[in-house]
Amino acid sequence: TLKQTNVQRYSPDHHMVEAFLGEGSFGVVTRCRDTKNNKTVAVKVNKSDPEILLQAKLEIFILEQLRRLDPDRCNIVEWNGYFLDGERICLNFELLDQSLSDYIGDRNNRGLPMREIRPILNQLANALFHLGSVGIVHADLKPVNIMVVNRSESQVRVKLIDFGIACNTSAVIPGDCVGTIGYCAPEIMLGTPYDEAIDMWSLGLVAVELATGVPLYPGEDDYDVLKFIIETQGQLPDHLLESGLYTDNYRSKETRSIKLKRGPENGQTLFVRLIKEMLALDANQRITPSEALKHPFFNPGLSRRTPCTDMNSTGGELLVLSQQPSSWKRTFPPKYF
Question: According to its UniProt record, what is one Pfam family this protein matches (predicted)?
């Protein structure tokens, strides 16, 4: 495992490491100053492990395609190229402020008001629309892979980052284990053919997390999550179960109990409707990015007609989950489940 104490030596020539930003299975991310232009950037330093080197090369392949897009207009991180440090591949990105996960955490995981949720979701749907225009599936959309550009701005701007397991739609392989537990679409867990609709499923879960402050589907493994999905949304479509490479893995196991309690309505019906369309169990019925961008929830005049209530204020639908891997208690608007 790479340590913060020796990260300085990974920075060659004109990149001076100023801070250690994070660490993952791939390696580390550092904040560096380019001494040639005095610009501060984020550098993803990949380990020299052969498998990680291959993954880094595949990420570069995707990032090269994304250069056709305007990073600001399309809400994706700006990539400034790469350089080598010995056998390590270092990817140079624009420096952004903080992850959406941390942004939510700064609110004590109590959820954001609608006036903040609406522009964030709109920007992310815009990002997915543009990824689709160049035939790319992100495949790992979640709060830690979404960055707030500058938290001090009055209007929150976000960008999608980490294209480490992204792929071309034409190169998708059914059965590939992509994504993160708790954010994967049902078709991923079952091992059926999938496409860019998996990103919309993940965006629906991000939307819920923005509103409630906690993940909708917590679980230690895919079985936990899939059982929760079925308990809350109903049985998966037959064609999905019949075509799944891994369907048998989910049979004949003890189910976990889930209790749902309904509360009074709080007027966020358009938000709930959008989430339901994002989380359609059948990928063919799931809303597309272009359709989402036209959804009435994003109507510019909506904020003046609909109260900007906090989803965790009095009202909404209270979910109490029993016997889940973690203890969760959260509110959610009515008529969803």
Answer: Pkinase
